TrEMBL record, chains A, B:
Its cofactor is pyridoxal 5'-phosphate. One of its GO terms (molecular function) is histidinol-phosphate transaminase activity. InterPro entries: Aminotrans_II_pyridoxalP_BS, Aminotransferase_I/II_large, HisP_aminotrans, HistidinolP_aminotransfase, PyrdxlP-dep_Trfase, PyrdxlP-dep_Trfase_major, PyrdxlP-dep_Trfase_small. It comes from Clostridium saccharobutylicum DSM 13864. Pathway: Amino-acid biosynthesis; L-histidine biosynthesis; L-histidine from 5-phospho-alpha-D-ribose 1-diphosphate: step 7/9. The modification N6-(pyridoxal phosphate)lysine is found at residue 210. This is Histidinol-phosphate aminotransferase. Residues 25-347 form the Aminotransferase class I/classII large domain. The gene is hisC1. Keywords: Amino-acid biosynthesis, Aminotransferase, Histidine biosynthesis, Pyridoxal phosphate, Transferase. It comes from the Bacteria. The keyword Transferase applies. Pfam families: Aminotran_1_2.
Length: 354, 354
């Protein structure tokens, strides 16, 4: 507390990212990073721009990266917005499309940042309760609102909603913007991108931090009707003219272009996820059906917090949320097959010693 | 305009960065970049982190960079905040220390972004009028306020206020935060950093885009009392956990560490500035006394807009502001000696053909 902080700073509860302890080398299954390295083409592209031109500002319009994304997703360039990670894209979206007057809606169990943004920008919001199986009840979103944000697949559950059901929601909700946060869509889900030309109120948000293995470079993007994109640019250009540096722009462009590698690693992760799911179920875990690069699991005999701590003691980091309804669950990022084998072995030992 | 934008987006006038035309190669003296390349050590440090670890998030606490800055400026680590360019640091400062209830104060002619931030965050503000010689009248800031921001040296004038006068302002203004924006202080000014332990309400903001030649990598920082820094971190962690990517963190750390190169290039730019100032004065220009890496000039016989356009036709970009009181001035970034020689020659020809 300080007398120099304004009321918002005093009251807000900032987001807490997954821990990054430096005391020893962990198998890191706690922040949904990709276990595979970035595309070699992206590495090469970044190496190529480490030169004297770094004295110059980056392109504020990010035109080359935007053009690459437009080609990849079959949209027009003015239907693409890029930002410093999808977190920044989401924050700017809250600043652009939502206002105090009307309540925005999002699931009670979902990405914690939605609530933080709502508090930060002093928005009214309603947490729509997931059902007992952690499904998002779309019908509960079909009421007067000032905006909707739904992660698909949801985090931390990994549960996925098919595009038909989402289209239906967007169609009956024409008066406000519906944001579909697709941070994890590339691991088996189907993107809503193909519908942005049908709905002027649909904004799709994606990131290069997961399926493109570039969490270290901070690039995310939004796809939607050109008016929505123009609004986002108005806010961005009122905060920071250059949010993505020269190296990140180059790496992101090359990563988007490398479809072959993208297909290879996302397939691998999906396979590993299905194998790990089966193995954990055999050990008595309840594992939610996931279309993401993580799984959400609980065991009736082993307490979630205890499992989290035991795994940490054994050199494996997973994510534990000390929150109502999910405080007996763990969110486990899908690593390489080897990493998941170690995880399974450690869990077996922990369960045997209960 | 879109029915999906909120009122703020509809009303705001975003900042417009200096033009970056791609039609031909220009001598670029319009965005206050450094004409010299980044430190070789920074280049090397960035090359060294282009590797598979880019799949992992950056350190959200930026601890190594912060530690380097703390050593360089002789402050504690909890007195340092880093962000995605000083623009982001400034935006977060507005979000942290200012509120609607009390008017904030800044000069009428100064960095345009202050006004944009005020509009974006719906703050009340008063533009304090510079005197006829473009001096900032500090006495006019000595009244009830909700915060003060002063660029020193000022942009686009380049004029500098000595630390004694600023200390006096901060001392009589204990109830609100005084931000000194020192983007250009390394070109002959004296930083207020040495006083942050004396004043709990002083925040000093700097950038690596100018004196460190890293505009392309987007890193800025703030120095101040630990309570101010904690407030900034609360806002940052409510917007985006990781605003600086791995490559930028590494490059910035190495650049801060390379004092020798920093001293060499800032000295060169100061010398070039003094030479160019003398030459332009000989050509009949009024050149304001500058402590920045740019000069603010006007010529009684040649109209500012005409000069800007003529120089652009001749392959040289300078900055022209179509604004009350300064619409007959040009802001010229200090380039290399060679670049400035070309500028002077072109100007001579333009003046001769009047």
């Amino acid at each position: 507390m300080s007398k120099y902080w304004n009321e918002t700073v005093n009251n807000i509860e900032p987001y807490i990212p997954g821990e990054q302890p430096k005391d020893k080398k962990y198998i890191k299954l706690n922040t949904n990073e990709n276990p595979y390295p970035p595309s070699k083409k992206a590495i090469e592209a970044m190496e190529n721009v480490i030169n004297d031109d770094l004295k110059l500002y980056p392109d504020p319009t990010c035109s080359e990266l935007i053009s690459e994304i437009a080609v990849k997703y079959g949209v027009d360039e003015d239907e693409v917005f890029v930002g410093n990670g999808s977190d920044e894209v989401l924050a700017f979206s809250f600043m652009t499309f939502f206002s105090r007057e009307k309540r925005i809606l999002f699931p009670d169990i979902s990405y914690t940042f939605y609530k933080v943004y709502s508090e930060l920008f002093k928005l009214n919001y309603e947490l729509v309760k997931l059902d007992d199986d952690f499904n998002i009840p779309l019908d509960e979103f079909k009421k007067s609102n000032g905006g909707i944000i739904i992660p698909n697949p949801n985090a931390p559950t990994g549960k996925y909603i098919d595009t038909e059901n989402l289209r239906n929601l967007i169609e009956v909700n024409k008066e406000s913007v519906v944001i579909i946060d697709e941070a994890y869509v590339d691991f088996g889900g189907e993107s809503m991108v193909k519908f942005i030309k049908d709905y002027q109120n649909l904004l799709v948000v994606q990131t290069l931090s997961k399926s493109r293995s570039l969490a270290g470079m901070r690039v995310g993007f939004a796809l939607g009707h050109r008016d929505l994109i123009e609004g986002l640019n108005r806010i961005k250009n009122s905060m920071n003219s250059y949010t993505i540096d020269r190296v990140a722009l180059a790496g992101a462009k090359a990563a988007i272009n490398d479809n072959e590698y993208f297909n290879e690693i996302t397939k691998k992760i999906i396979n590993t996820r299905e194998n790990s799911t089966n193995q954990l179920r055999e050990l008595g875990f309840k594992v939610l059906e996931s279309k993401a690069n993580f799984i959400f699991v609980t065991h009736e005999k082993a307490n979630g917090k205890f499992l989290y701590e035991s795994l940490k003691d054994n050199g494996i980091l997973v994510r534990y949320f000390n929150k109502d309804r999910i405080d007996n669950y763990l969110r486990i990022t899908i690593g390489t097959d080897n990493e998941m084998d170690v995880l399974i072995e450690k869990i077996k030992t922990i369960l045997e010693n209960l």
